[in-house]
Amino acid sequence: MDNIYIEKYQNTDFRDVIALLVQSFKSKFCRHQKLSNNDIENILYASWHLKSDDPAYLHFVAKQNEKVVGVILIRCRKTENANKNIPIISLCRRYGVYNVIMMCTKMALLEGHKLNEGESYIEHIAVNGTCHGKGIGILLLQHGEQALLDMGYTSYTLAVAGGNPAKHLYLRFGFEDIKKTKSRLKGYFLGESQWTIMKKIYNHV
Ligand SMILES: CC(C)(COP(=O)(O)OP(=O)(O)OC[C@H]1O[C@@H](n2cnc3c(N)ncnc32)[C@H](O)[C@@H]1OP(=O)(O)O)[C@@H](O)C(=O)NCCC(=O)NCCS
């Protein structure tokens, strides 16, 4: 891997991380709405608050020449209503009520997992398309795992959509299928109705 390194997410990475997520999950963000990448990025930028010192998350980025090429966000505690300051009115004026409601609904559906005691949950993992298959995804999972182990966590959980080939990566990393879920709402809003919850359990306590 050419000069790839992993570091803790900094607030200055926010724009780059959003651009990477929009690129990686474009089909979900664009479902039933026509927005440019730039518009989606601006809505996320205004409505989502990812602070590097938020104790509810472990957050790492992969960089190459100081450019963000990968990201993993792991939730390990209950969040304190992080989205409370969404500038709904100005967003609706600019992008339309429909687009803003659609985006907020999609975000809520993507973030809907309830944490159990000792559990941590991968909110998202993504690698820039031009860098796929170079081991960056594994590196991000390993970094997250080590941080969780250091903090005494007992399990690593995620949800993967039915046909996502990323599942191979998770199986290879030691995750196992725990439960299959079906959601018409997710099918309608995100284009994926079948999801698998996967878990990796650590027996170090
Ligand atoms: C999933 C993702 C983060 C993997 O990152 P990556 O850096 O390419 O992963 P790695 O190089 O470490 O590992 C590659 C492994 O992932 C699996 N994999 C991931 N995406 C794949 C794809 N599109 N086709 C085939 N295999 C894929 C394979 O098992 C592969 O292993 P192999 O090379 O031995 O066959 C990346 O594909 C991505 O950003 N996808 C879009 C966003 C996404 O779907 N995220 C997961 C949400 S649950």
UniProtKB/TrEMBL annotation:
Keywords recorded for this protein, A-Z = Acyltransferase, Transferase
Q: Which Gene3D superfamilies match?
A: 3.40.630.30
- Which InterPro entries would you find in this protein's record? Acyl_CoA_acyltransferase, GNAT_dom, YpeA/RimI_acetyltransf
Q: Where are the transmembrane segments?
A: none
Domain (N-acetyltransferase) ranges? 4-203
One Pfam family name from the record? Acetyltransf_1
Q: What is this protein called?
A: GNAT family N-acetyltransferase
Q: Which organism is it from?
A: Tissierella carlieri
